[in-house]
Amino acid sequence: LIFSLIHRWDCRDHFRMGGTSEDAYQLIQQASTFSFASDDMLRAVSELMVLEQLEDGHILVQEGQEITKWFILDEGIIIRYKLATGNAQNAMIDPNSISLQDQVVLDRLEGRGRVTALFHSLNEGEIAYATLAAQGPVKVWSVDAQKSRQFLRNNGDFALQLTCRLAHLLRSESKVSRALASIKGRTGGGHGAAMAKDTPSKPILRVLCYDSTEWVRTGFQPAIEEFNQSVDATVSIEMDFTQDRLNTRSVAYASGYT
Is residue 139 within 8 Å of residue 74, measured between CB atoms? Predict the structure, then answer.
């Protein structure tokens, strides 16, 4: 019987280890999502966290199924992907039946303290929009969604602060997404950009100018357009402007610029 139990434990691709609440507290301190929280609140949340060691390919959240946990990444990489139309139902029956050709990778989550699935876990019965899977060995801490919802009900001030923080992060990510969509969809610059209309054959240098006042915009655009029309120019410059100052949050706005 003992041998059988040990064998069953070793054969699992997903198993829990005895991480301490102090380990969990040290990790959540590094999670920017909870940067607003007091030490007391962070320690209280850390009591809900469970350490999980995952092997390559393990699915944390399955597209189309209810989200029952959210996660804080400790080590490794988690990929988020959607399945091709018509394959989601097959994946729910047999995740191993899905090939790489059926997957559309949305992003990669890496870096100690990154949080995922929290936003959608706040609503009971929420269905996953995409799949989260381990890419290589991954160490994460999970929090049961039902327990975290009860925790928020019992700590109203913390719940309100978390809602404000998630709304702020959502606005930032939406701004990044809009910037990427604008870059992908245009041939020249977009609204508020110094565009290179007349030189499509030249390599394009995309630049994002932070902390831009109106005089910066009006001063830069004519000079860039003049440069782009010059016969001596070896590249075409596309410059976008944002009033945000460069910091650890706004640096993501530069995604896709070269």
Answer: yes
What is the DSSP secondary structure assignment for residue 17, as one 8-state letter? -
Residues 6+ apart with CB under 8 A from 79: 105, 107, 108, 109, 132, 133, 135
**Separation CA 127–CA 123 (nearest Å):** 9
The candidate with the shortest Cα–Cα distance to 120, out of 81, 70, 195, is: 70
pLDDT tens readout for residues 23-61? 999 999 999 899 999 999 999 999 999 999 999 999 999
Torsion over CA: 152, 153, 154, 155 (sign): positive
Residue of 43, 81, 44 whose CA lies nearest to 61: 81
**Cα(145)–Cα(117) distance, integer angstroms:** 10
Residue among 136, 126, 139, 115 nearest 63 (CA)? 126
**Cα gap 169→176, rounded to integer Å:** 11
Q: Which amino acid is located at 169 in the chain?
A: L
pTM of the predicted protein model = 0.60
